[in-house]
UniProtKB/TrEMBL annotation:
It comes from Thalassarche chlororhynchos (Atlantic yellow-nosed albatross). Its main location: mitochondrion. The lineage of its organism: Eukaryota, Metazoa, Chordata, Craniata, Vertebrata. InterPro entries: AceGlu_kinase-like_sf (IPR036393), Ald_DH/histidinol_DH (IPR016161), Ald_DH_C (IPR016163), Ald_DH_N (IPR016162), Aldehyde_DH_dom (IPR015590), Asp/Glu/Uridylate_kinase (IPR001048), G-glutamylP_reductase_CS (IPR020593), G5K_ProBA (IPR041744). This is Delta-1-pyrroline-5-carboxylate synthase. Bifunctional enzyme that converts glutamate to glutamate 5-semialdehyde, an intermediate in the biosynthesis of proline, ornithine and arginine.
């Protein structure tokens, strides 16, 4: 028996025995039976007189969509009092105006006093109108709704309880949405409440408790409680340090301070939490979220069911490790400590990590073997992704070499003075490099990315959150462990965090208060999804790697096949691999063209013909579906152009601003190409595969950026730094520089301090 003094009707034994609640948000998509509780603040308008029709229509649309998916939806609603209040006020004003007109000959509405309206009368007047509104809205989606009114006394009578249970089950069986509310017209008189001006409010905690009770009685999978706050906070919402609690666990009540109640109703968050915990104990998952926010109310219910991070999720399963929010805070604090270290100390950490990659080679390869075996057994990875997933002794050796390059080049990265200006006498300004803050790097099928990115973050003094793909879980785990071991030599273990929780990428992209820059490493689809999902956080990267090689009419026979073979065949899954081969028209039907085709056939490269190339052939290869295709495999498109100008135009129209190459012996043509192609990397007589941080001498890269601000091309240490301004003065004030002031601006450029090039 569970008994709460402030929730009087939850005082009877429960006969229900069914499974446990969902442990993780990602499981909510499996919810079959769902109760949506709409608080007074959600249903009513801001003036507390009448209903928020637009918001209500949006909620009905979401409930209808879920109902039509085959789920069983129930609504516990408030709003009858507010709707009735609107109707009664209108009737009273109309009645008073008629009487005043008869007595004085004129209507003086502004002098009329509206009496305090009794809540039960308001409920009686509003209940039918509220239900009629729900019926009209649900009819638009070919869904039938039914009204059920209950009181506390109905739950004390065993027969009434059984009748209610049977009625609800029958309605759900017939695909009808039950609309449930307390019968506020006959409840005992409430105590006055000043929260709702002019009305003695029926306690909203009755509806919170009603929703929890019904959810448990009906063996519901999910209870969604919508209010006018985002969820549960660790301190009153609106206070400076208030943080939204993503997941709330039984026993956490002591760590929460409850604030004031909502503008309408009497329940408040404390009553919602108690009702939620009671439902959770009965096996129903609970989410408390904001149903009034204009930017999210249109999809808040469907987002919750899809498992997105919305509101506060109540769970009985507490994870062993920290939450992603806690990891973000740890990375922030660890990054600041890391930035405060001496450059030699940061370099020492990276050197140690490089040594660990070779010293622990066997353990790393064993973990990687597990990932490869699991991926092959499940058959979920294409061959190009399997190649990216695979580690080898040579890869680890190359990684170690790259990390040592990063360590050697990081001595003068953080705190480097890049500009000095004398503003006035004894007033000097400096612009210095500083870390960006906390980086979120999301990568898939490439565990070698983890030590590379970690080293760059360490060298630049940034905190780092890493989110790897499930397919590389074993490899990522050991590589992160080695990274933290290296960081521990200077006590900054927390600076690099591996996110192992079941966080969806889209949820991570919403942590704008914890993350300063997102860097995706993976497929073009991954990058596009992250760019779309990022809320207020800049994303560095490229969505596609559509790289071109243009073979000019003056190209060298010896260079052409070597460069094309290397660009396409050396590692076809790479983002800097050749995808479209542009050939000057004059080279068609020449020995050079035949050599190119023969080489591609020998290398088993599937050829797709561009529209112009196909027009020159009697029997052509399959015509390309799109000239904007990144194949990521032994496939490429061949297209014909009439000149270098047309090649440039083609690249601008169909390329992705990644890497583009010209092969020619004509220096003038080459310079035209180099100057006019607007891509991050433009090469002359060199393979597209040189577009890489390691090959550029950056040691490694966090990715290749096609953005036009901050960093472009392979992004190494420099791309992970921003700047701040340091002004050193001596009692300087701006008023001294006014027209009649005593000081003048000098704005003299000062020499920069000597850089440490060792």
């Amino acid at each position: 028996i569970r008994c709460w003094s402030n929730i009087p009707f939850i005082t009877v034994p429960l006969s229900r025995t069914h499974g446990k609640s969902f442990a993780h948000r990602s499981e909510l998509k499996h919810a079959k039976r769902i109760v949506v509780k709409l608080g007074s603040a959600v249903v009513t308008r801001g003036d507390e007189c009448g209903l928020a029709l637009g918001r209500l229509a949006s909620i009905v649309e979401q409930v209808s969509m879920l109902q039509n998916q085959g789920r069983e939806m129930m609504i516990v609603t408030s709003g009858a009092v507010a709707f009735g209040k609107q109707r009664l006020r209108h009737e009273i004003l109309l009645s008073q105006s008629v009487r005043q007109a008869l007595h004085s000959g004129q209507s003086q509405l502004k002098d009329m006093a509206i009496p305090v309206l009794e809540a039960r009368a308001c409920a009686a007047a509003g209940q039918s109108g509220l239900m009629a509104l729900y019926e009209a809205m649900f009819t638009q989606y070919s869904i039938c709704a039914a009204q059920i009114l209950v009181t506390n006394l109905d739950f004390h009578d065993e027969q009434k309880r059984r009748n209610l249970n049977g009625t609800l089950h029958e309605l759900l069986r017939m695909n009808i949405v039950p609309i449930i509310n307390t019968n506020d017209a006959v409840v005992p008189p409430p105590e006055p409440n000043s929260d709702l001006q002019g009305v003695n409010v029926i306690s909203v905690k009755d509806n919170d408790s009603l929703a929890a009770r019904l959810a448990v009685e009906m063996k519901t999978d999910l209870l969604i409680v919508l209010s006018d706050v985002e969820g549960l906070f660790d301190s009153p919402p609106g206070s400076d340090d208030a943080k939204l609690i993503d997941i709330f666990y039984p026993g956490d009540q002591q760590s929460v301070t409850f604030g004031t109640k909502s503008r309408v109703g009497m329940g408040g968050m404390e009553a919602k939490v108690k009702a939620a915990l009671w439902a959770l104990q009965g096996g129903t998952s609970v989410v408390i979220a904001n149903g009034t926010h204009p930017k999210i109310s249109g999809h808040v219910i469907t987002d919750i069911v899809e498992g997105k991070k919305v509101g506060t999720f109540f769970s009985e399963v507490k994870p062993a490790g920290p939450t992603v929010e806690q990891q973000g805070e740890m990375a922030r604090a660890g990054g600041r400590t890391l930035a405060a270290l001496q450059p030699e100390q940061r370099a020492e950490i990276i050197y140690r990590l490089a040594d660990l990659l070779t010293d622990q080679r066997e353990e790393i390869l064993l973990a990687n073997k597990k990932d490869l075996e699991e991926a092959e057994n499940k058959g979920r990875l294409a061959l190009p992704l399997l190649k990216r997933l695979s580690l080898s002794t040579s890869k680890l050796n190359s990684l170690a070499i790259g990390l040592r390059q990063i360590a050697a080049s990081s001595q003068d990265s953080v705190g480097r003075v890049i500009r000095r200006t004398r503003i006035a006498k004894d007033l000097d300004l400096e612009q210095v490099t500083v870390p960006i803050g906390v980086l979120l790097v999301i990568f898939e099928s490439r565990p070698d990315c983890l030590p590379q990115v970690s080293a760059l973050a360490i060298a630049s003094g940034n905190g780092l959150l890493l989110k790897g793909g499930k397919e590389a879980a074993h490899s990522n785990q050991i590589l992160h462990h080695l990274t933290q071991e290296a960081l521990s030599i200077h006590g900054v273990k927390d600076a690099v965090q591996l996110v192992n929780t079941r966080e969806e990428v889209e949820d991570l992209c919403r942590l704008d208060k914890l993350i300063d820059l997102i860097i995706p490493r993976g497929s073009s689809q991954l990058v596009r999804n992250i760019q779309k999902a990022a809320k207020g956080i800049p994303v560095m990267g490229h969505s596609e790697g559509i790289c071109h090689v243009y073979v000019d009419m003056d190209a060298s026979v010896e260079k052409v096949t070597r460069i094309i073979r290397d660009s396409k065949c050396e590692y076809p899954a790479a983002c800097n691999a050749l995808e479209t081969l542009l050939i000057h028209r004059d080279l068609l039907r020449t020995p050079l063209f035949d050599q190119i085709i023969d080489m591609l056939r020998v290398e088993q490269v599937k050829i797709h013909a561009g529209p112009k190339f196909a027009s020159y052939l009697t029997f052509s290869p399959s015509e390309v579906k799109s000239l904007r295709t990144e194949y990521g495999d032994l496939e490429c498109c061949i297209e014909v152009v009439d000149s270098v100008q047309e090649a440039v135009e083609h690249i601008h129209k169909y390329g992705s601003s990644h890497t583009d190459v010209i092969i020619t012996e004509n220096e003038k043509t080459a310079e035209f190409f180099l100057q006019h192609v607007d891509s991050a990397c433009v090469f002359w007589n060199a393979s597209t595969r040189f577009s890489d941080g390691y090959r550029f001498g950056l040691g490694a890269e966090v990715g290749i950026s096609t953005s036009r601000i901050h960093a472009r091309g392979p992004v190494g240490i420099e791309g992970l730094l921003t700047t701040k301004w340091l002004l050193r003065g001596d009692n300087h004030v701006v008023s001294d520089f006014s027209e009649h002031g005593s000081m003048k601006y000098l704005h003299e450029s000062l020499p920069l301090p000597q850089r440490n090039m060792n």
